[in-house]
Amino acid sequence: MRKYIIKRLLQSIVILFFVAFIIYALMRCLPTSYVEAMARQKSMQPGSKSYEEWMEQLTAMYNMDGSIVSGYFKWLGSMLRGDFGDSWKWTVPVIEKFNDTVWLSFVMGFVSFVLEILIAVPLGIIAATKQYSKTDYTISVIALAGISLPTFFFASLLKLVFSVKLGWFDLYGLVGRSYDQLSAFGQIMDKANHLVLPVITLVVVSMGGLMRYTRTNMLEVLNADYIRTARAKGLSEKKVIYHHAFRNTLIPIVTIVGGSLPGLFSGALITETLFGIPGIGFTSYQSMVSGDIPFSMFFMVFTAILTLLGNLIADILYAVVDPRVRIA
Questions:
Q1: Lowest-confidence pick of 57-66, 125-134, 202-211
Q2: Cβ atoms of residues 260 and 313 within 8 Å
Q3: Hey, CA dihedral for 90, 95, 96, 97, is it positive or negative?
Q4: Hey, where are the domains in the chain?
Q5: CATH number of 96-321
Q6: Mutual orientation of helices 51-61 and 32-43 as an angle, nearest 10°?
Q7: pTM
Q8: DSSP characters for 233-258?
Q9: pLDDT(263) > 90
């Protein structure tokens, strides 16, 4: 296992090297007029440097005066030293803006992911064990509705019912009007109150796929020969399902668990935008729309790292879930 992990880590480093090169090359393919427009825009700000000084700084920052290969290695060296530059839109260091927004998205994504697992997996198992029953049809309808509902539609529906009609939650934002007058515990509860509807949105629109996936894999396992053998030996149905079948059903599900790691840190762009939550998804979207190259490049490289790490975690979990799986 140790040799396998080391080998996969080395492979991931090589893949990340070329992914980062593609990201840098795409940035270098931007027309020079874009950099000129950015320098002109910055020079017009009060107390800012001149247009020529901004052009010189932006060109030197991303080594645009040399070849793509040489510029990439210089940019990569800066990244390895922890120098990610300053955000053009937020006018603060990239890492500072990232650190201010990513943990809010992580909390929201982690809570949504845990609730999704706790709801979707048991319902998928119940639907499989009661195939073609009213329970199965009801769960399938719920799953299909969750898959089919667009995020923006369901979020708008929640806001209409619970914010406009009932007035239980605020329409936008992370904090209420009286946030500064609240105690420390009150401030935490105020933020939690504003995250209720976004979390419900993320859970409902994402659990349908996992529910159907669990049901399909559970049905496949229940039709296996060793399950029929376990039943023929007189084992209780509960032990057959939750001890033998469920353990093997988990093997494909760990792929989803490992692949969900990037989503915990990359934020929910549509949901955060609709509810006005200043998370990393909303921030990265605003940065890309406004042409914030430093922040956008850092965020794309960070997402690539998480994707590679998630795949590695999924492979390791195979051996943890099923002892029969051995990595050579």
A1: 57-66
A2: no
A3: positive
A4: 2-80, 96-321
A5: 1.10.3720.10
A6: 130
A7: 0.80
A8: TT--HHHIIIIIIHHHHHHHHHHHHH
A9: no
